[in-house]
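ok posting inputs for the zinc ion job
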Amino acid sequence: MRTNMTSTRMAVSLLWLLCGAGCGVMAQSPATISTPETTVRLENTAEGPRLGELKTQDGTVWKNRQAETLPTSVEIDGKAVPVKWEWNRGASRADGKEVSYVYDSASPKLRLTWEWEARAEHGPVEHQIRVENLGKAEVWLPFVDSVRVEMDCDASGTLEQLSVDKGAGTPSPVGTHLVDVKDGFQWEGTSTTYSHFEWNGVREIIPFFLVEKKDREKSGWYIGIEFSGRTRLTLERAGGTLRAAAGLNPNPGPFKTRVRAEEGFETPTVFMGGTTGGIDAAGNVLRKWERAALTKAANWESPEYPMLVNNSWGSGLAIDETLAMRMLKDSAELKFEMFHIDAGWFHGVGDWYPDPKKFPHGLAPIADEAHRLGLKFGLWTDWTQAALDTEHGALNLRDPVVNNWVVADTPADWKPEPFKGQTIDIGVPAARDWTEKEVDRIVTDYHLDMLEHDGYVVAQGCDRSNHPHAAPDPAQTTITNAASSYFVDGPNSTDVSYHAVRAYYSVYSELRKKHPGLLLEICNDGGRMVDFGSAAHGSYFSITDTYDPLSNRRAFYDTSHVLPAAMLETYVEKWPVPKIENFRYMLRSGMMGWLTVMLDTTVWSEEQHRAAAAEFELYKTKLRPFIRDADLYHISARPDGIHWDGMEYFDAPRHAGVVYAFRGTIENQASETFVLKGLEPEKEYALHFQDQSAPDRKATGNELLTKGLTVSLTGPNTSEIVFLNEVTR
Ligand SMILES: [Zn+2]
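and the output
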């Protein structure tokens, strides 16, 4: 071992001696990095670094005129100080997969690194700008976008844009937006961890958009932001010019952020990819890239991912030891894979210890019983909420230290809600340290396999002047009181979220180091934190907070355009099911991604028990491999609950796939034909109708790709699952 270490070190030293810091990657301008789908040309120009062009797989070149806008001044001791950036060629690097151009400012002493990287074999490339303060004085940086482009486009050509709403709270009426990008088009999409559309009417997007030519080839490109804080994307068209920007949200400005001596600022990483062949083609590349490069490899290690979960919220806050033990027994009988206790188990908000009246023996025995029955054990928390409990070292906001962590003062008569209190700003290092210890304690003490966070882990805004973020501007700060929670909004909100999100990621990175197999569910009031930053740090998302079959299918339809299906959790809740086929329809509406059942299964009839057991077996053995690995095709319009809708998985390496067909309430349409995708026209496929709504038969790929697959169902709110297997001759 020692010998190996020494020889490795010697080899490294030798390389260093031979070619110095930039060995083998002498900076060039222009430089190119590429994947099969995306080639970007990067160059240093007199105006600064520039993405010169993005080339898609079909050879279409999107030329960009806009150099990156680097900060021209910073603030030191309250005064604006101009900054002049010089390209440092010697410190810059470029190879086929990674490019970093370094720019130095002599006074104030700053270094800016402009980075691009292709992290996986396929898919998009990533980009980030870092500014390091190499001087002795604290510096305030102005707003820096992650990326800005001004692309040439054919002035007479038609373009279209895809953007996707979060399923926050409840899926929006449209959800998946595919709109023409005409001359004069102006669009802005925003994302936070809150999505308060109920207050402000603003529907948040999953921070991403795609723009493509509206022709047969559909050449285009997309941008997404790997950050959960306040971000925004813009797209504008003026004749033959297409302008776009992505990064932190500069509004409501003016934005500024503190960079202490020997510290740095990083723009949220963005990814940019080229695409041809339309939205599902883009999604199939993107989802594979996310699995390979963005999400945690540990998530995918178990073949039981996505998982079949029984969640206690079907009984709401009534959960206690007796009910938990009864649910565990039934979970084992129904062969669930995880038992998940939702809100209602704890002593108090901010006091994350079991309520002794409900759980006199604590939670560990429940976890141990789950493990004995072969189930994993998961638990709901909201670990950034402070309230009034004083026991166990709870987060008590009457403690002056904790009160300085919460985002705003509370009146003397303030009281928490049953499971919400007042949010602390984990951008404060001491607050982050407390949460880091607390989540580790919760996972360790309660023997958890999964930790769910709900509520507001990232502060929306903050009214404190002594936190690392910029101080609030009292004249422009609003504080909204919604039930127990105070929400702050003002010019410093983006900076507050910048610090808090980085702390959130750091807490979860530390937690994963200590508990490598731990699963992390991301749930901010149901589907409000669905973004590529949390995808990189968690294991799966709650994608909406409305759990009827239609809402579940709508949220899945939208979100699955841009995120791996395995990560997309829908909760199945109690819904009227007069017939057993309606019961199956209800379950299957949640069976296209991660399946969490939120029903009291102990009240199911014997027939329902049998049907559920069969559906769960189908999910685990037949459907899950497709959900994990297969390409996904949106083969109908977005579900409306009235008409039919369908979704197809097809796994080319396995020569097999599955079609989910759902019939809405429509009366006079007993059958629907779905034109399939991804098959080989010359091959023959065996079709198996799971519920035997039609006899099994064979069909050619050509027939299924042109005429389509017809499914017939007799009643409203019913479903069928059709398996496709290539016939080998
Ligand atoms: Zn703060």
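notes: The radius of gyration is 27 Å. The chain is about 25% helix and 30% strand.
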